[in-house]
Amino acid sequence: MKVRFWGVRGSIPTPGPSTVRYGGNTTCMQLVGQDSPTIGGEYLLLDAGTGIREAGLELMKMPKPLRINILITHTHMDHINGFPFFVPAFVPGTVINIYGPVHYEKRLEEIFAGQMDYSYFPISTAQLAADIKFHDLKECEFDLGPLHVTTHYMNHPVLTLGYRITDSSGKSFIFTGDHEPYYDFINEDGGGGIDSDFEDVQAIVDEQNRRLVEFFQGVDILVADAAYTPEEYLTHKGWGHSSTDHVVDWALAAGVKKLVLFHHEPTHNDDKLDAMEQYARERAAGKGDGSLVVVNARESLVVD
């Protein structure tokens, strides 16, 4: 099992000469077999940001009919708004299963249909020729052919799922989606002091952060939201994204083998991302035993 990156940017596409090395498309990646673009005869994509357009063009070169699974971490625009441009969805005979977090006010299918309402897009989901099914998920486990999938709630301003996927050889992969550490926002943002009505909040926060490291435990490849530098995080706390320090420390605590820094902040150009990668490597080497591999995600990169 390997991961191929089609879109690595967070929030909004950032094409241009200053982002050409890492790429400007938003979130999309593909899990592929060791010697095949499929796993168990099916294609597996994670998230449907603008990178999924290129992924779809590549899939159209493959033998038909296509059977495609798409795991959605959450439904913010940078994670779903490439789907209307996903060519296999327009092709009769294609079967697409879309999995994503349950919402209490709308079903996953309604959210995808909403972004293809005629106010925003000329073709509705009802006009797509592929056989498309939607699956609303909570924390759970299920199988996709030879892959075992475990979902985990993440901390972001909409219900978000991280996915841990294990293949038949035991190799494991995690994609966090968007996430920042749990913290006591009631007491920390309340001007200091502990409100007696919420004095148990810190224990809940500690438990949620402990569960996260447990979820990461021993994984071979961790693709993690590392949008900010530690300094930038201080002014973006509560926005739902992590810093390089956070993800390196989690990876070390969980015994991760390879950490991929992901969801690049749209204001970060290629040189800035180079510097963040080097900083993260030095932190990993300084705090760990030197075995943790740290790389930046970039479009077309394949991580084994």
What's the SSE blueprint?
Blueprint: E1 2-7, E2 28-32, E3 43-46, H1 51-59, E4 67-71, H2 77-80, E5 95-101, H3 108-114, E6 131-137, E7 141-144, E8 147-153, E9 161-166, E10 172-175, H4 185-188, H5 201-216, E11 221-225, H6 230-234, H7 244-254, E12 258-262, H8 270-287, E13 293-296, E14 302-303
Parallel strand pairs: 3-4, 4-5, 5-6, 10-11, 11-12, 12-13
Antiparallel strand pairs: 1-2, 1-14, 2-3, 7-8, 8-9, 9-10
Structure description:
It is a single chain. This protein is of the alpha/beta class. The protein has 8 helices and 14 strands. It has helices spanning 51-59, 77-80, 108-114, 185-188, 201-216, 230-234, 244-254, 270-287, and strands at residues 2-7, 28-32, 43-46, 67-71, 95-101, 131-137, 141-144, 147-153, 161-166, 172-175, 221-225, 258-262, 293-296, 302-303. Helix 5 (201-216) packs across helix 7 (244-254) and helix 7 runs parallel beside helix 8 (270-287). The longest helix has 18 residues, at 270-287.
Which percent range describes the beta-strand content?
Answer: 15-25%
> Largest beta sheet: what is the strand line-up?
6-5-4-3-2-1-14
According to DSSP, the number of beta strands is 14
Q: What is the averaged pLDDT score?
A: 96
Specify the biggest β-sheet. 7 strands, mixed
User: Unreliable stretches, pLDDT < 50, 5 or more residues?
Assistant: none
Radius of gyration (CA) equals 19 Å
Overall body shape = globular
DSSP summary: helix tally: 8
What is the SS-derived class?
alpha/beta
